[in-house]
Amino acid sequence: MTGKKHAVRAALAAGVLAAASLGAVAVAGSASAAQSPDGPKTRIVGGTIAHTADTPWAIALNNSGSPSPSGQWCGSTLVKANKIVTAAHCAQEAASTYTAIQGRDVLTASGGKESKISSIWVDPEYGKSPGHDVAVMTLTTPFDGVDTLALETDKATDAAGAASVVYGWGSTEGTGPEDTFQKVDVPVLGDAYCEKAYASEGYTADGEICAGYEDGGKDSCQGDSGGPLVLNGRLFGVVSWGVGCADAGNPGVYAEVATYAAALQQQIDS
């Protein structure tokens, strides 16, 4: 990626960049947390193959406008039979253009469950204030009988060293197969680290999580946007942005679910 710009981890560079009004490029459609202005990249970088049978609440979010033949766009998390949480920058298109897919490890294959989206709620502060990169989508066809993931509500869990894991179908930058569900361990680095690393990019400790490795090598990437960062069996974060993917000194940034849990839960219960 050229230049120090916030990368949105979304599959579609043009649409996502237009939506990221705070100068942060949102990462959608790939496994790395950052989206390059010169086009989408691929999936989770430096990870290992994962299986949706083990994490049934991990939901692929496809879009008819995706440049990928598989339709891959973003990730999301099933938090109720008919509700998924994703990133606000992933939710800027018409509801009719999205398809949620559950239980499909390889997006170019078949199988699993599918649902269209009937409505979308985007945090109203997204694009107006730092952070707030969260959204809730309502499924037209509920994924009944599928395990859901509870929201993290305790902001104190955002402590340096916490062993979180990120999941996605995004870009691998050659470290793994494309359109394939993967996971990677990304320990929390702490707010102080990202406030320094992203001093000019607007990292906000009030609503974002800094996770990854100081030396790089493992990260979420384009296409992973909106997907789950999991800690202690709860939805801890939502893949949001970064500078490049797995670059030294530029860890992934995630929306901190605990900060927005009350607003998210209100939409989940509606």
UniProtKB/TrEMBL annotation:
Secretion signal span: 1-33
Where does the record place the Peptidase S1 domain?
A: 44-269
Against SUPFAM superfamilies, the record matches this protein to: Trypsin-like serine proteases
Domain of life of the organism encoding this protein: Bacteria
| One GO biological process term | proteolysis
Q: Name one GO molecular function term.
A: serine-type endopeptidase activity
Query: Which chain regions cross the lipid bilayer?
Result: none
Family from the record: Belongs to the peptidase S1 family.
What is this protein's record name? Serine protease
Q: Which organism is it from?
A: Kribbella sindirgiensis
Which classification does the entry list for the species? Bacteria, Bacillati, Actinomycetota, Actinomycetes, Propionibacteriales
